[in-house]
Structure formats: C-alpha cells, structure tokens
Amino acid sequence: xxxxxxxxxxxxxxxxxxxxxxxxxxxxxxxxxxxxxxxxxxxxxxxxxxxxxxxxxxxxxxxxxxxxxxxxxxxxxxxxxxxxxxxxxxxxxxxxxxxxxxxxxxxxxxxxxxxxxxxxxxxxxxxxxxxxxxxxxxxxxxxxxxxxxxxxxxxxxxxxxxxxxxxxxxxxxxxxxxxxxxxxxxxxxxxxxxxxxxxxxxxxxxxxxxxxxxxxxxxxxxxxxxxxxxxxxxxxxxxxxxxxxxxxxxxxxxxxxxxxxxxxxxxxxxxxxxxxxxxxxxxxxxxxxxxxxxxxxxxxxxxxxxxxxxxxxxxxxxxxxxxxxxxxxx
Amino acid sequence: xxxxxxxxxxxxxxxxxxxxxxxxxxxxxxxxxxxxxxxxxxxxxxxxxxxxxxxxxxxxxxxxxxxxxxxxxxxxxxxxxxxxxxxxxxxxxxxxxxxxxxxxxxxxxxxxxxxxxxxxxxxxxxxxxxxxxxxxxxxxxxxxxxxxxxxxxxxxxxxxxxxxxxxxxxxxxxxxxxxxxxxxxxxxxxxxxxxxxxxxxxxxxxxxxxxxxxxxxxxxxxxxxxxxxxxxxxxxxxxxxxxxxxxxxxxxxxxxxx
Lengths: 330, 258
Description:
The complex is a heterodimer of chains A (330) and B (258). Chain A has 330 residues and is mostly helical. Chain A is 65% helix and 1% strand. Chain A has helices spanning 19-30, 43-62, 64-68, 77-102, 108-116, 133-154, 160-188, 192-211, 223-228, 236-254, 278-288, 292-305, 307-329, and strands at residues 264-265, 271-272. A two-stranded antiparallel sheet of chain A has the order 1-2. Chain A starts with 18 loop residues before the first helix and ends with a helix. Chain B is mostly helical and 258 residues long. In chain B, 62% of the residues lie in helices and 0% in strands. In chain B, helix 5 packs across helix 7 and helix 5 (100-121) runs antiparallel to helix 9. The chains are: A mainly alpha (330), B mainly alpha (258). At the A-B interface, helix 3, helix 4, helix 7, helix 12 and helix 13 of A face helix 1, helix 2, helix 3, helix 6 and helix 7 of B.
C-alpha cells in the first residue's frame, strides 16, 4: 500500500567514495536519468533506497491484515471477491517491491527478518483496527488515496526499478481507491445505520491518515538528501495539503463531515486543517498503537508456522537437483 | 435483530446447482482464511487466486440455481440466508484448514475430482451448466496442478512434512466417498443428459491420486468407510461456525444494500 516518510538521516560516508564518481552520479540525477541496479551509486543512496523500498514492501504485507480481517465477513459475494482480489493485489505489490529492493543487493529473507525482528518499520496506519465494514471503504478511499498521493511522484524516482514498480502499483491503487469510495457511496446512500457507520469510520481514520504523510516539514530531518537524489520530490506538508484539498470535496459529496471543526478554506481555496496530534503518531511509531502487537504477532506466526513448509520445499528442490545430477552422470 | 432463513424449492435442478455452488463457496471461503497468513507470499497469492476462482464459480452456480427456481432468490440470498441444515456442500470442503498439508490435501482430493467432473460436464445438454463447466474445468486443472506439486514437495520433502502430509491424507480420506454418490433426483438429471454420473469418474480419480501419492512417497488408505451427509444438510460441527462468520453482516443488518 504505501510507505511513509520514516527514513532517518544518513551518516555521510561519501568521503570514502571517489569524488569524481559522486559528481558524475549527481549530474545524472540532475539530468533526470534513471539509475539502474548495475550503475555506480553512493553507498548512502543504496542504503536509503533499500530502507525505503523495503519499508514500503513491509507495509503492503502488514497492510493485508486489517483488510484481510473482513474477507470472511464481507456482506455480499461481489464485495467478498473484490476485497479478496484487492488484498491479493497488496501481496503482489509486496512481492514486486521486495524484488525491487533485492536489486540493491539485500535478499528478501534478510529484509523480512529485519521486519519480524522489529528492526524495520512499516506504515503505522496499519496499526489501527478495522472494526466495521465501513472501515474497508474508508481504507480504500483514504488510505489508498493518501498512498497514491505519495506514490505518483515516486513514479519519477531516480531509481529505475522503484520508479517502474510504482507505475504499476499506482494503477492498481487507483482502482482500489475508486472501489473504496464506491463502498462509501453505497453506505451513504443507504440506511441511517449505514450512514452512521460511514461517519464513524471517517472519524476514526481521518487523523491517522493525515499522519501517513510523515512529520511536519518544520521537524523533518532527512528530506534534503532524498530531495537532492530525486527520491522525494514534494515535502510531507505539500503532499498532505494536496491530499486534504482533494478529499474535502469528496467527503462533501458523500454528505460526511470531516472530524475537524477548525477546518476552513483559505482565500486560495486550500482547506486548512487543525494541528495534528503528533504525540499519537510518535506513540504508534514507538509500538504503542492499538494493533502494533497484534500485527507483529500475526506476521511472526505466519512465518513460524510456515517454516516447515519452506524447509520441505527447499529439501525437495535439493533432492531433485541431486537426482538430476546423478542421472546426468550415468 | 435477525433474519429468517429463506425457503428454497429444491427441484432436482435447483438442488444440483446449489450443491456445486455450496462446494465452491465453502472451499473458497476456507482458502480465503489463509490470506495474509500463508507460509510464503507466493502461497498467499496462489491460495487467494484459487479462492477467487471458486467464489466466481459459486456466484454463477447460485445465479443459475436462483433462475432455475424462478422465485425472488438471488446469489446473495442463497449464500447468506440459508442455515447449516440448508447447505448442501460436501463434508470435505467444510473441514478446517488445519496446517498447510491439510489444506493442500483437501484441495488435492477435491480438485482431482473437480477437474474430471467439470470436463465431463462440458457435454451437458444444459447450455448454462456446460458453459460453467468449461470455465471451471480450466480453473480446476490449474488448482490440481498446484495441489499435486505441493503434495509431492511435502511428501518427498522433510520427515516432518512427510508425516504431516500422510496424517492429512489419513484424516481426510473418509470424506472423499461423498463426491461420487448420487440420489434419485440427480439420477434423473443424469438420465436426461443434464448431469453426469460422478461414479464413472472414480477409477480415473483414484489413478490421479495414486500417481501423485506414489511420486510423493505417500500411501493412500485402504479403509473404505466413508462419511456422508453434506448433500442433505447433515454437516460436521465446523460448518455452523463458518456460516456464522460468513453471514454475520446480512444477519445483523437485514435487507440493506452493500
């Protein structure tokens, strides 16, 4: 689904690298050339991208859990099939992104192990629970909507494999977003009970979704290098504002109220939102969100319960290779 | 708040379609429970894919059952507003996922049958059923290949995977007989060329099983005691729990559009 701006500042180890190569690299970036896996790149660029792409992949995989929570309870067969297909898409994004991260030289196993050990982050939006069917609509509408806002610029990211992955991912996310909005529209045109369900979901998800864009620019410590390398093209606050401006009219069309009484439209047409509670954001990042423990426990359980299956597949492949070698030798 | 169960006029044709629809929905539902929890991401994808195929088959078969019945039931009413005694699926497909071996063995037993069954049904005189069969056969062939390849890996993998695969075969074997049973209503459809006699497929089904089992170094049980009852609504205790989850929204919020 999406990675948020969690990257911390890189230690500067470029002094060890050839200054000429670094200058040439930057010149390529400035000329909007794509960097490919076999090209020379600064170690810090490799490290930043490995972390960002793998965080993004982890987010796709952990993001399967809150929505997967409703696959067995979807209210109609059509909704059930659509939700299952959507969660399957997220899994596909995860696989695709792990493959993109692997082009930078770290294996999927290592990346997954880091996540399961709690050393690598995933988007904290998935640490909130899906309590009603309206949450499934809201996730599609807002969470995927915010993801798209973040990922469209990533389609022009300087690293080729990531940029190409994002083009495909964005297409699917945009379909998911329309699907989510259509669920909301159905609820809002339904009974009073359904409308209340939709409003309640919006109330719970609105602020966490705004937090998906990361800390405010005034406190963000790491955007400079990412901007210079053209990994990041807009600041957190710029993207957040774009998202809010796009979303408010959608909420109005649904007849829902954004849970921010202080929100006003300024003279330029921008919707100005109230102060975000960054204490909550930090708490969730620190592991204290409503579902952090459940999400990690679910991923670890799947991994541990599946260990014997992966071992069996590896053992069988080894036996087969051995037999083929023996046959060839005869 | 609760909703009364719908009534279904189970003519032989309606019952025929319902039974196959229920098989596909319940097995698809079981597989969908894996989504997000599979041993590897590739299997999250594959099991979801198979689940989607089966749910798709179920929707077509329910719609056809509703049409054949000619009242105001539809795919969702048939899926969400019948209780455990009205469900007509095989006992095999409602068995819990268990470990990955149990899920795969359940799938293998079913897909080895479904592949043959739908291929034969492509010659049905009922054009709708023949069309559903043509689509389902293509999907089942893939499901069978997926399950067979896994069963061979598990059987001929490690000691642990071998033991788990063998235990799953032993545990699920008694639920396979029901696939080949036919009642009077269905026999009439067979005579009319609308359905085919599943009993005629048993030999080839067994052959598929023993070929794969032999490559997997697994053994098929010799006992021939078979559990039955699913086709007439006498289920295991597991199905009621599955339905209470599947139907929770429609039962809690009756008559709404979602």
